[in-house]
Structures are given as structure tokens and as C-alpha cells.
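User: Modeling request: complex.
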Amino acid sequence: MRDPGDFIDPTLLTTVLPDVRVGPDHRLGEIDHGQPGATVILSGGMHGNEPAGIRAILQVLESLRTANTPVAGRILGLCGNIGALRLGARYSDRDLNRRWDLPSVTQLRATRGHVAEDVEQLELLHVFDGEIAQARGPIVHLDLHSMSADGVPFIVVCSHPQSAALAQNLCLPGILGLEDAIPATTLEYFTTLGHIALAVEGGQHQSPATVDTLESVAWLLLASLGVVAWTAVPDLEGRRDRLRNRGLNLPPLRVTYRHGITPADHFHMKPGYRNLQAVHAGEVVAQDNNGPVSAPTDGWILLPLYQAIGTDGFFLGSQIVQA
Ligand SMILES: [Zn+2]
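Assistant: Request completed. Predicted assembly structure:
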């Protein structure tokens, strides 16, 4: 096990990204011309079976360097779970993206942890601490993810008011109120500290479109923050068109219903539901001990449960009514 806070030698991610080397402190690269502006932290591979985010980050950094694009602020690309990426597994001992609530972080800092992901998290905390301490402007974290199944890509919006405003520029459906569904992620950590956080689920792990989706979202975020000029975004209109098509032009949604379950319920989702599929009030979407389970309202189904473990059967999202 590595010592927390130690610099890691350049590391070959042999399993899923054999050509990628990670620099010290989980770094994929950084661009900083000393100009004022936001610090944008792009992280990929928080789950070790999700290489697309890392590819996307590397492509953005490479394009910026090749074009010698002026950068106002700072862009840092980070590799998440190095050990799990080596294995090509979601994680080694525990999910790295589930213990970022402040009590867990405080405890981890005090105990230094026990398992592989504790070390990964301490190393990332060390990087985040440094970035927060030296930031010259707002801090914005974008965490890039991918999914096991095909599905509509989407943005996870945090409760920071600027998060929703930024998400509107990213041309994918933004989902608000998911913190309760997926608590204690990095999103919660940055938000709790008063920073802006967004996550993007870019599509299926291995699909080439997923890298393009994640890369495009990163570009649009950088331009929205003024870190790069809109004119510096390669193929800006093409990227916007592709994102809108992949996101089915869905409006921003808020999570309005959670169908909680216990093992005793013997809950079974009806086959064939996809994330962000439209459903109608009364539509039977699952079965349990008591018979059919139906959607209580019209809406869009979120995170339908098709695995054996979990306490969330499904969620419903509803269109946000503008005041
Ligand atoms: Zn993920």
C-alpha cells in the first residue's frame, strides 16, 4: 500500500488504459498560465472500469496544448482510482465515490484508513486541499463517469446555485436533487465546502460516443466559466448538436419521487426500462410482494434497479417548473 500523500511514480494503467501514464498526485495534466480565473478540476476514473473520462480529459488537455489556447484560470486533470483502473474493476475494496461526506472525510484523515480506496481518497484529498488553498477564483469540480448499460447521458447538478446555471450550458439534461439518491460523492464534498460541483454520466463505458460526450461537456464547462474563449472550443456547434441529440433534448429534471425497497419486498423492476425513459402515472413499472408497482405520477424514470442489491427501486424525475 502506498503512503497517503506520497507522490506516486508515473504509473502505467495496464488494464484499461495501457498507454496512459499518471503523474504524481493522480495528475493527468494541468494548464495554468498564471491568469486570474476559475480553477477547474476534471476527474475521471473514480470508478476503475470507466476509462472514458480519462480519455476525454487527456484529449481536452492535448487540444489546449497543441493549439496553445489562452487559459484564464487553471485546469487540472486528475485520475481517480488508480488501483482499480489497474485492475479494470469498479473498485478494489470499496466504492471510492461514496465516502465524501464531511464526517467520513474527517474520520479518514484521522485514522488514515485501512483499505485500498482509503489511500486513494487520502491522496485525492491532498490534491483537493492544495487546489482549494491556492485558488485564484472559484473552484469547480467536474467528475466524469460512464455507465454499464446504454442510456441517455445526463448531468448531475449540485445544490450550489451556480451549478444549475452552468448545467444549462452543457446541452444535456441536468438532474437536480440526486444527492439523496447517491449520497456522499465528491459532489457532496465540494458543495459542502461551498464550491461548485457537477458530475456527468456520459454513456456506456466502452462506447466511442461516450468519450466525445464527456470531452464536449468539459469543453462547454470551460467556456461557460470563461476559462477558455467560446471561439477556442473545437467544433463548438457540432458538439452542442451531438449532446442535444444524445440527451434527447430533455429539459432539466428534479427528482420528485423515490421508491425505497427492502429485501423482504422482493422487488423486481419490469424488464426493459432505461434511465430517463418517460413513464405515465399508473404505468406498472415493477412487481413486489403486494403485486404491481406503478409510477405515482408522470415523469422520467431514473436509475431503475436491475441488480440484486440496493434500497432504491427507482426514482422519478419531473420537469422543473420555472417560477
Ligand atoms: Zn462512475
